[in-house]
Amino acid sequence: xxxxxxxxxxxxxxxxxxxxxxxxxxxxxxxxxxxxxxxxxxxxxxxxxxxxxxxxxxxxxxxxxxxxxxxxxxxxxxxxxxxxxxxxxxxxxxxxxxxxxxxxxxxxxxxxxxxxxxxxxxxxxxxxxxxxxxxxxxxxxxxxxxxxxxxxxxxxxxxxxxxxxxxxxxxxxxxxxxxxxxxxxxxxxxxxxxxxxxxxxxxxxxxxxxxxxxxxxxxxxxxxxxxxxxxxxxxxxxxxxxxxxxxxxxxxxxxxxxxxxxxxxxxxxxxxxxxxxxxxxxxxxxxxxxxxxx
Length: 294
What we know:
Layout: H1 3-27, H2 32-53, H3 62-86, H4 92-99, H5 102-112, H6 120-142, H7 147-164, H8 167-171, H9 176-198, H10 207-235, H11 237-241, H12 247-259, H13 265-286
Helix pairs in contact: 1-4, 1-10, 1-12, 2-3, 2-9, 2-10, 3-7, 3-9, 4-7, 4-12, 5-7, 6-13, 9-10
């Protein structure tokens, strides 16, 4: 992994984690599904305009179209939609911690459902990740966390894990920024109907809401997604996913700095354990596991 890939990974982790703080600001002053659908519409159109300016074509390969639909629905509509709704009652730091367990979910699904062999380091990483979640949730439950919101965050992380599995076919074949734009538009369309049915389009305008919306539209919305696609294309999904171990740290730190969210000792311990577990799982997935004996 070269220096450029490392810098891209660090930048992605910071931008991805910051989205929870800006989302928390948005949902306190705007209906979450309406706001998110509008964000995807703007981000998607912006990405397409930039892609055309860079000479990228509108056409995608069949694999890219399939992956774009899966990614747009699973990550944008389900993962972010569920998290935006959840963060009306769940703190940004907790939402970021739950979402950061996605690599653990991917590894567990590969082992339990797909029959993929997992080295001892990976098993230890899964156990550590579960232990870290238990530590944090034990502390948060005693403080009266909203269980419904937590459940939505967990379902969102599972949807993100599904989206992650489609990344390789989406990022191969060129036109990466066009792919980013299309999957944003898929998310906007998928969220529009539930927004119309479930929400009233009532906003509380302020400069804080404006800047939070502008930031989440451009930085996590377009730039972070593009960086992630390019990083996966550069070093592969397994190595790129290693940077997810930084997300718990960035997520709680940014929320504490900008929202003043409390950070207890057990939160720090749990975050460290989860991060170590994610790193162990990703390192184990990079190892070559010998096939079973005939």
